[in-house]
Amino acid sequence: MSRQISVIGASQGSGYILGVAEAVGRGIAEAGAVLVCGGRTGVMEAASKGAADAGGIVVGILPTLSTDDANPYVTYAVATGTGHARNLAVVASGEAVIAIGGEWGTLSEIAFARRLDRPVVAIQSWKLRNNAGTDLGITEAETPEEAVEAALSSAASPGEGG
Length: 162
Prior knowledge:
Radius of gyration: 14 Å
Largest sheet: 7 strands, parallel
Number of strands: 7
Strand content: 15-25%
Strand order of the largest sheet: 4-3-2-1-5-6-7
């Protein structure tokens, strides 16, 4: 089975952030991995476009009850009807998570990912630390290529769980 990498970020974004998201999506597809996202607009749509344009597979886990709500680049849409609770399914479905920019929903997804021991790679996203100085399992990347490489290398190998 192909590796699955989740991409999270805001439903709206600047041209720079959307360009980063598209490049990340393209990199995931070129690496032969499946992109999992929230299936809607903004970072999700830009990453989906990058993956689809590179011939990749995109799974969109939607907050609504209709698969018609998916962006046009989603290969497989999963309608959940669970609203923001779908954030858990997005990150649980990836072996690693790439956070690009983001707002409160992205922060919740980062928290879910770490609670599930999924590695998180961040580009221009939340900078988190705790007072104990514990490694939070979040790697910062400067470029889309670094983010994809870090996510793939930190993801569990097929058959290892994750």
